[in-house]
Amino acid sequence: HIPTPSKYMKIYHDKNPPLIAEKWSIKMLDHILKNKTYMGDLIQGKRMRINHKNHNFVVIPEDNHIIIKNHHKAIIKEDLFNHVQSILYNRNSRVSPTNQMYRYTGYLKCADCNTSMYKFYKTKNKRKKVFFYCGAYHKRKCCSKHYITESKLDDIVLKSINQFIELISNVNDKIFENISISYLEFEKENKEFKLLELDKEKTKYRKLLNDIKEDYKKNYITKEEFELFKDRYLFELNKVLLEKESLTSSKINNNDIESLKKIKKLGKFDILDRNIIHELIEVIYITEDGNVDIHFKYKDLYEDTLRYLKQNMV
């Protein structure tokens, strides 16, 4: 019941709007789902006129667009936007004849050649067995089988997901046992202020290094003086860079806390489906001997939180 833009204009500006409803097209919906403007970003430089005499425009590649973050109020959260891109555009999201998405499509890769795994069926005694082969082996025999059955894969992935959620839940509990939210908010603001100050210091010492290079070129200072000042400024610059690295390595903020709480809320799963895989897993690699290597989306968050706890509980 949401009118298209042109229909909306007719309803609110025409005295006698048409009775026939204009329909949304796939192209229109596709444009909306990929439009970063809804995230609060201002996108400029999408196209450019060839020259002042030629009124034709050329489309500029997306990597060269001018993007101003947080330009206006967002109506779509960034994690939701990225979630949609991952579902629709970054993976081969095939649908089964029963209108169901295959569980592992786009997530299962050969650990040696990074080719997507192929799904096969074998029927024996009226029982269907599902298994996977390396796509490169199936097409060109240029890799090994990397064979694994779907039932074995399901068992390993489900067990790993439940263990991962348990680890995240334990970390979440530790956070709230030892550190208050108000402290986290204060620390976040304090850390941002410190990072700004360190950036100023970094700029200052880099400028000083450039200045003494120019002074040395113009013979305003001797070589010995140049080496002395250069070593001193490099020492201070490295000290600033190390302090900045230390600050950023212990990062954790309210968004991280919300992510931890969201994962804990998922609880333990008894049955595996595509939504769970998409929520928690980046990619699954199958090794030549049939072992499973799962790369979780929130691994960095988990490690950052552990490091943060270690630093703040001492």
How would you summarize the topology of this molecule?
Layout: H1 5-13, H2 26-34, E1 42-44, E2 47-49, E3 57-59, E4 66-68, H3 78-88, E5 108-110, E6 117-124, E7 127-134, H4 135-140, E8 148-149, H5 150-178, H6 181-217, H7 223-249, H8 254-266, H9 274-280, E9 281-286, E10 292-296, H10 299-312
Parallel strand pairs: 5-9
Antiparallel strand pairs: 1-4, 2-3, 6-7, 7-8, 9-10
Helix pairs in contact: 5-8, 5-10, 6-7
Descriptive notes:
The protein is α+β, with helices and mostly antiparallel strands. 52% of the residues lie in helices and 14% in strands. The chain has helices spanning 5-13, 26-34, 78-88, 135-140, 150-178, 181-217, 223-249, 254-266, 274-280, 299-312; strands at 42-44, 47-49, 57-59, 66-68, 108-110, 117-124, 127-134, 148-149, 281-286, 292-296. Strands 5-9-10 form a 3-stranded mixed beta sheet. Strands 6-7-8 form a 3-stranded antiparallel beta sheet. A two-stranded antiparallel ribbon has the order 1-4. Helix 5 (150-178) packs parallel to helix 10 and helix 6 runs antiparallel to helix 7. The radius of gyration is 28 Å and the shape is extended. The model has no long low-confidence stretch (mean pLDDT 80).
